[in-house]
Amino acid sequence: MAKAVFISSTSKDLPEHRAAVDKAIRGLELRPINMDDFGAQPGGASGVSLREVGKADIFIGIIAKRYGYVPAGMEKAVTEQEYDEAVKRRIPRLMYLLDPGYDWPAERVEADETAQAKLAAFRNRIEANEVRRLFTTPDRLSSYVVTDLTKLLNKQRQQTLITRVLVAVVAVLALVAFVLAADSGVRTPLLVSMGVLTETFTPSPTLTASVTPSPTPTSTPTLTLTPTVTPTPTLTVTLTFTPTPTSTATPTHTPTITLTPQEGAPFGEGQVGVVLADFERIDAAAPDVVRNLELEFEAANIPFIRVRHSLTNREQAKAILDLYDATIIMWGNVAEGGVRVYFEVDPGQNEKFYAINTIQVAAADLESFETYLFQGMDSLYIVYFVQGQIAYFKRDYPLSESLFDESIARIPPDRANSLQAYAVYGYRGNARYYQRNLTGAIADFDEFIHINPNDAIAYYNRGNARGDSGDLAGALADYDAALLLDPDDPLIYYNRGVERYRSGDMEGALADYNETIRLNPEARYAYTNRAFVRQNLGDWEGALADFDITVQLDPNEGYGYLNRGNTRFRLGDVEGATEDYAGWLKILERDPVTLEAMQSGDTVTVEMAFRRVYHIPFEAQAGQLVTVQVRNVVETGKFVDPLIVIFNSAGEAIIGNDDYDKFDAAVVDFPVSADGTYTLLVSHAASGYDGNVEIVLDLETAPTP
C-alpha cells in the first residue's frame, strides 16, 4: 500500500501551493492526506485533523503568513496542533516556510497582531527544531517536495534491506571484549597489544532511489520514483583479528555432544542470544574463563544459555545454534599461557555476512592491555553500542540515539582511535539523520571522518545530509571525496549527478549519469534522469533514446511509456506518442468505468480517481473532424492532469494527448477515416487525479477542398 503523506497548511492563502504539493505526492505514487478530502467527520476541525495526522507516514508542513483557525477554547491553531501531533508520533517531517523576501499578496496576510505573534513563535520553533526550506511559487515548492520525498523514501527503503548482520557482528566484538576482561588470572599474565583487535569498516554497495527531475519544455514532466537497493546511510562492519602466535596444547580426547535434553529455552524471534559452551582447560592452572564470562553477561543483561560441554568442530556448533535459535555460539580452550576463542555466528537471511571464526591471544605486555581495558574499553561501551544497534534496526531512532550517547560518553578522548569509535559516531549520525537532525548528523559524520578519513561511505552519508540541508557545494565536495576512495561505485556518481542537476550544472550531471550507466548498464533510473538532463540541454533525440532503453529494461513500468510519449509528442511523432499513451493507460488502468455514448455538442463532467479510466463511445462518419477537450474543473485543493486516447472500432489507438494547454488535454479537428463506433478513453497522467474534469465532444464535417 502506498505511503500516506499528510499536507498541513492554512487553507485560505495556499490553495495553489497545496494543489501543487498534492500533485507532486501523487506523481510519486504516494497517497496524500489533504484537508480538502476530509469531508464531514465528528470531532471538530482539530480532532479530525489530529486523527488524520495519526494515519500518516510522512508529514509535510507549509507555513506562509497566516496563523490560521484557532478552535474555541484552545490556544493553538489547527495547523500548529497538527505539527505537534506529528512530533509526538515521531512522524518524519518536511517543513517549508515562505521566503520572507518573496512578494506575497497582501490579501493573504493575516491582519490580526495576536495571530502574527503566534505565527512568528511557531516559525521560530520550526527554525530551531527542524531542517526547513524556504519556498516561493507553487512550482518551486512542488520541486522541493519531490526532491525531499524522494530522498526520504530512499533512506527509508534501506531499512528493509538491513538485517541483523551488524548486530550479530558487533555482539561478537562484545563477547571478545568480555573474554579479555573476564578473569584477573587471564589479565595478569596475558594479552598484549591492542593491535591484535582491529575493526575495519568497508563501504557497502549502495544504490538509491532515483530522483527524476522535471524538464521545462511544453510537455508535462513525469516524475519517476525508481525503487532500487538503497543501503544509505549505512555502515558495514568487517572485524579483522590478527592473533599473536602462542603454543597451545591439543586436547587428547573428543567429548561426546548431547543436544538433548535442552539446557535452556530457545531464544525468541529477533533476540540476539548467545550460547556459551565449555572452554577446554588444557592444564590445571588454567583460569575458569567461562564462569567469569557468565558473570559479565549477567551484569550486562546479555541473554545467554550455558551448554555444559565443550565442542570439537563447527558442525557441532551449527547444530547447537539451530537447536536454540541463537545468534552466536562461543567455545574454545584455555591454558595458563593463553586462550583461544572460537565463534560461529548465524547471520540469518543475509548471505553477505562476514563472520569471525577465531581469536587467539598470548601472554605479553600486561600494562598496555590494562590501560586499554580499564581506562578506555569499559564493557558498557560495547553493551550500549550493541543495544543501540538493536533499537536502530527496529527504527526506534530516538532510543538508539540515546543508547549511542551512552556508548560515546564512555570513550576517553585519547582512545577514540584505538576503540575504533568512528563506528558508533556513524550509527548515531544515521539515527540523527532519520530524525531530520541534519546538523547533528553532519557533526557525527565529521567525527567519523576525523577518526577514520579513509571510508567512502562516511563522505557519502555526509554528502546526503549536506545536500538535504541545502549545502549543495558541501554535498558535491563529499561525493568527490567518496569517489576518490571508491571510484567504481555507480551510485556515488548517480547521487552527485542529482546534486549537480539541482545546482544547474547540466553538463556535470550528464557526465555523472554517463559514468553511472558505464558502471551499471542496467541502471534504469540513470537513463531516466539522463533523458531529462538531455531535454534541458535541447537534445530531445538523445532523451528519446534513453527513454527507449528505460522501456526495454522494464516494459511493465508505465512511467517509461508516459515519459517517452511526451518526448515523441515534442518531436512531432504524434503516432508514436499515441502508442505510448495507450501503453501507459494499459498499465495504469485498475478502475474502468464505461459511460453512455456521447453525441456531438455534449458536455459531461466526471470525477477522476487514481487509476480510473473512463470509456466513452461515440459514433463518427468517415471524413468528420473530431474535437475532444478535457478540462480540469477548478476546485480548491483538487487537481486533475487529464490524458486522453481515442480508439477506433478495431481497438487501435489512433490519436492521443497529454498536455494540450498546460495540463488540459485535447484533440482538435482530427479526421476519422471510416464510419463506426469510436471509444474515447479519459484518465490521468502521472500527477493529479483528485477532482472533476469536464469532457466536451464536437464532430464537424470537413470543409470541401
Specify Rg, calculated over alpha carbons: 32 Å
Biggest β-sheet description: 8 strands, mixed
Report the uncertain regions.
38-44, 159-260, 347-379
Q: Decide which structural class fits the backbone.
A: alpha/beta
Helix content: 40-55%
Task: State the oligomer.
Answer: single chain
Morphology call: elongated
Mean pLDDT: 76
State the total count of DSSP E strands.
Answer: 20
List the helices and strands and how they pair.
Layout: E1 4-8, H1 15-27, E2 31-33, H2 44-53, E3 58-63, H3 78-88, E4 93-98, H4 113-129, E5 132-135, H5 138-161, H6 165-181, H7 184-187, E6 197-201, E7 237-241, E8 274-281, H8 289-299, E9 304-307, H9 314-324, E10 328-335, E11 338-345, E12 358-362, H10 366-376, H11 379-393, H12 397-409, H13 422-434, H14 438-451, H15 456-468, H16 472-485, H17 490-502, H18 506-519, H19 524-536, H20 540-553, H21 558-570, H22 574-588, E13 591-594, E14 603-608, E15 612-620, E16 624-632, E17 639-647, E18 653-657, E19 665-671, E20 676-701
Parallel strand pairs: 1-2, 1-3, 3-4, 4-5, 8-9, 8-10, 13-15
Antiparallel strand pairs: 6-7, 10-11, 11-12, 14-20, 15-20, 16-19, 16-20, 17-18, 17-20
Helix pairs in contact: 1-5, 2-3, 6-11, 11-12, 12-13, 13-14, 14-15, 15-16, 16-17, 17-18, 18-19, 19-20, 20-21, 21-22
